[in-house]
Amino acid sequence: MSPAVLTQRGHFITFEGGEGAGKSTQVRMLAERLQRTGQQVLVTREPGGTPGAEIMRHLVLTGVGKALGPDFEALLFAAARDDHVTQVIRPALERGIWVLCDRFIDSTRVYQGRVGDVDPTLIRALERATIGSLRPDLTLVLDVPTEIGLARAAVRRGGSAIDRFEAEDISFHRRLRDAYRQVAAEEPDRCVLIDAGGLPPEVSARIWSVVEGRFADVLRPSIRAVARG
Ligand code: TYD
């Protein structure tokens, strides 16, 4: 491998959206598609991705953090993110690997900030402390009508216990959707709103056309090479 290739940073794509938007399915489908073009891909998620961050995940999703208030929950998510960025995301990007992450900073901005009413100054400070200058190259915001998302989340959950955020009322989930749409509109260079209605392959095709367009320089040569076989 030439030194230029060795020093090339990987590409960082995050997936965002409310409950039942289908992020985890779409992360997996995009990873498979990128791998078929010969890319090295790491799939990860927040909160989680490291043993320490999984502990924070447990604290938040079981509702332990809720009792201490939204600022404290924001701190838990930040602690989890700090570990995840340091241990997993930055090292993978430095090795030139594509990183696909199910939720990232926009989840904190939306769930704790815009909907949870945590002071924007605290949200910004936590963001600076946890990610510094790291920004996703692309954020796919999966958008689906609230009722459809909640119905999908209920099917996925089956008989298992409802988690801390799923248990919020419908107006909370409607505010989440609106907030995500605002975030996507405010940062059009980074964020793309994806219609997440329909079957997974339909949504995946929409996502692929965005990714292929954004990363044409990297992907077109690999796609041609795979086609030549
Ligand atoms: P998860 O089971 O991963 O949900 P989903 O499949 O919807 O992604 O649970 C993560 C929950 O944590 C989800 O309800 C969103 C919430 N969350 C925040 O409130 N802030 C954050 O910064 C992150 C990363 C997640």
Tags for this entry?
single chain; 229 residues; alpha/beta; globular; binds thymidine-5'-diphosphate
Describe what this molecule looks like in 3D.
This protein is α/β, with parallel strands linked by helices. It has a five-stranded parallel beta sheet, sandwiched between helices. The N terminus is likely disordered. Thymidine-5'-diphosphate binds next to α2 and α5.
In short:
The chain is of the alpha/beta class and 229 residues long. 59% of the residues lie in helices and 12% in strands.
**Share of residues in helices:** 55-70%
Radius of gyration: 18 Å
- Helix/strand-derived category reads alpha/beta
SSE arrangement, N to C: HEHEHHEHHEHHEHH
What proportion of the residues form beta strands (DSSP E)?
5-15%
Bound compounds: thymidine-5'-diphosphate
* Overall body shape: globular
Which residues form runs of ≥5 with pLDDT under 50?
A: 1-7
N-C termini distance = 21 Å
How many distinct beta strands?
5
The main β sheet shows up as: 5 strands, parallel
Subunit organisation of the chains: single chain
Question: Overall mean pLDDT score?
Answer: 93
Given the structure, what is the number of helices? 10
In what order do the strands lie side by side in the largest sheet? Answer: 2-3-1-4-5
